[in-house]
Every structure is written in C-alpha cells, then in structure tokens.
Amino acid sequence: MVFNSVIFLLFFPAIFAGNTLLSRRPAWRKLFLLLASYFFYAQWDYRFLFLIWMSTAIDWIVGAKIGAEERPKQRKWWLWLSLAVNISLLGTFKYMGFFVDSANALLEAIGMNGNIHTLKLILPVGISFYTFQTLSYSLDIYYRKIKPHDSVLDFALFVGFFPQLVAGPIVRARDFLPQLKQNPMPTREDLSMGIYHILSGLFKKVIIADVIGADLAQPYYSDPDAYGFFGAMAGIYGFAFQLFGDFAGYSQMAIGCALLLGFRLPKNFDNPFMARNNLEIWRRWHITLLTWMRDYIYIPLGGSRGGENKTYRNIMITNIFSGVWHGAGLNFVIWGIVDGITICFSRMFQMGRKARNRVDSPDDPILWIWWQRFFTFHIWLIAMPIFRTQTLDQLAAVGQSLVRLGPASEIAGPVPIRGLVLIVLALAMTIISEYYGPAIRRFWRLLSPEVLGVACVGILGLCGLLATEGSPFIYFQF
Fold this sequence. Notes:
Blueprint: H1 6-21, H2 26-45, H3 49-68, H4 72-109, H5 127-142, H6 152-160, H7 162-165, H8 173-182, H9 188-222, H10 229-260, H11 278-284, H12 287-301, H13 308-326, H14 330-355, H15 366-382, H16 384-388, H17 392-402, H18 408-412, H19 417-445, H20 449-465
Helix pairs in contact: 1-2, 2-6, 3-4, 3-5, 3-6, 4-5, 9-10, 9-19, 9-20, 10-19, 12-13, 13-14
C-alpha cells in the first residue's frame, strides 16, 4: 500500500475517522493506530511482521534492563545485545547475499571453487528504518538522554507508526514518545498544514519523480550505450531530480498524514539543491538519517575533537556506513567513499575561508552565491551514477556515454521534452520554496481545512486513477 494509490485513499479516511472518534479514549486510540499500522505493513508482506515484533520486543526489554542497571559493564552488555539483534536482522535479510557473492568472487579470483550457497531472501520493506528507530531508543537510554518508557503499547506504536514505517523520516523515541503521553489531536492549523504537505509531496512524487523517471532516468540507465553526451546528461540530471522528488515527496506525505492524526514528525528535506557547499547539502538531504549517524557514529568516534586527521577519518567512516546502509552492493560502498571525499574537501575549503575571515553569508554577492550552489550541486551529481548503477560494467557504460562525441543527433539520443520541462519546473519550485516557502505556508494556514480537505480528496482520487502506484517509492528498497 503506497500513499499515491486508490487503496490508501480508502484506508486513510477510515483511520482518520477512527482516530477522531477515539480521541477521548487514549489507550484505545493508540491500540487502533497500532493495529492499523500493522495492517498497513501487512499489505506489503504479512510474513515480515514478526521482524517488527522481534525488534520491538528486544529493544523494549533491553531499554528496561539498561535503565535499571547501574554497573557500566552490564549496561554495555545489554546494549551490545540490542546492537547484535538489530544488526543481525539487517545482515541476514539485506547483506547476506552480497557477502556470499563477494566470497564466491574472491574464491574464484584465487583459483578456488566459489560455490557457497545461501537462501535468496526477500528484503523486508522498511527494515533499515525501523531497526534504526529501535536502536536509537536503546542508545539514548544507554547515554542517559532518556529513561525507559513505561508503556509497551506506546513503544510499539513508536516503532510501527504507519506514516513513517517503511521509508522514514527516522523518528527518535525522545521526540515521539512524549507526544503519545500527551494524546495530541490535530488542531485546525495541523489539518491545513497536513493537507499542504500531502499535496506538495504528492506533486513531487506523481508529477516530478514519476514522469522524469519514466521519460529520462529509466530509459537512459537501462541502456546507456544508446545515448551520447546530451542524452547521458539528461538521464543523470533526471535521476537526481527523480530521486529528490520521490524521497522528499514520500517524507512530506508521511509528515502530512501524521499531522492529520495529531502527531509531528521531523523534517527530512530542506531544499538540498540550494546548498552552498557539500557539508551543507548533507544537512539538508535525508536529515533524519544524517543526524542519526552524526549522533550515534560520528560523535562516538570522536567527531571533530581529535584533530583534523581524526576528523577526516571519522567523516569517511560515517559516510561509508551511510553508503552501506543504502544497500548491499559495491556501488554503495564506492558511493559512500566518494561522498566522504567530497565532504572532506568541502570542509578543508570552508576551514580555509574561515581562517581568512570569509565565512558564507546571505549578504554575499548574488553571483557568488549562485556559483556556489551550481558548483555544489554538480559535485554532488558526480556520485549519482555510482548510486544508480548496479555493476561496474554499467558504470563504465555511463562513463563511455559521457565522452561519446559526434553529430548532435547522435549525441542527444531520444530525449523527451516533457522530462526536461519538469526538471526546470522542479528547480523553479526549489528556488521558490527556498525564498518564499515561509510566506506560502503562512498564506496556506489562512485557508479553511474543510475546503482544503475536499480538494485533497479530489486530487488523491485523480492520482489514484493515474495508476501511479505502479511506480513504487525508490527508498522502499533500502
């Protein structure tokens, strides 16, 4: 079940109605939302519900044990149990095939029989997201940032809450569990802004991501050999905007659905293509994952406290981990390394500017600001083919298409104008959001939720008729 589908158009109004009717019965309301969340997940594959239950049960027990224990060694032992269970779940379902294939390739490379067999397991949707959520609960208790929660029902709903269950944003226990204690219901402003986020996210997904993906990215990456330089650039640009529209659209719809139910989820995107350096772009893209890795990987490694060399080491380790989190493949490892290198160089450059008292400012000359944005985006874009391709042969084919020069008709290949127009539209929306987003949202809050609700249902129905559910969200595979 995806947000841009007919079945969700039927599902969510029923959940909204039940959530409203049970507003004065907090325990029943939470149980209703929990069962609805499990039903939502079961539409993907009910067999993997036991993984959510296992992750929930382990970290609930571990959190209680760590909170009750004062001896450092025993506290650490319970934390390692949580890490072992969650990483084992990820390792078994997400990485086992990659490790076995790599071992077979290594054995064959040294002349031995690479014939290790393993089960071909389906990747459970959302496993990378909800395991990180439960882990954050155990880690926060271990670091004494929160205390163990007193309601297993609340904790189960925190893990399984359906708007963000399968593709984020990654929610922290310290942000969501207090909301459950307060039993919040949506205000009129929440209703208006919830509809705003749903419609905005839906537009990013259905109009921007799906069309650009179908017109530019998918044809190009399916057969890079058929394209020359201009066609290759259209495909590479296309995938960048497809990925942004798809994932930012999902995150925004998740935030909107949660608001309509009375809950607040953290922002996951903040106009990343308006970043002025590569450090900033990763503070604006998939914010909840990057802050998770900052708090639980980068800072525990030492962060920037041990000198420049150790800082760059910690940046590289964190980015490689980020690459591996995205998928089991050599391309994701390389992608993490490349991104780590670009961030390190960006940090060096920014440190040099700071030493010369030339810190970035909104008052800088407009041409300098836009040059920084242009340069930053294209440095980030270099890594996109690595992220998108599955094998080194496919990546090599992308590289060859970029240097394939000849007559214009051969270089361009079949490039649909509609996809190019939507790239320009997506860029225009990003610029408008960066400069006028707060004003647009202030105006939106003045509109009646009732009128907006009717418009929302109509647009959702139209999108359902467009059958966009045939194009699943990209981050479901992570």
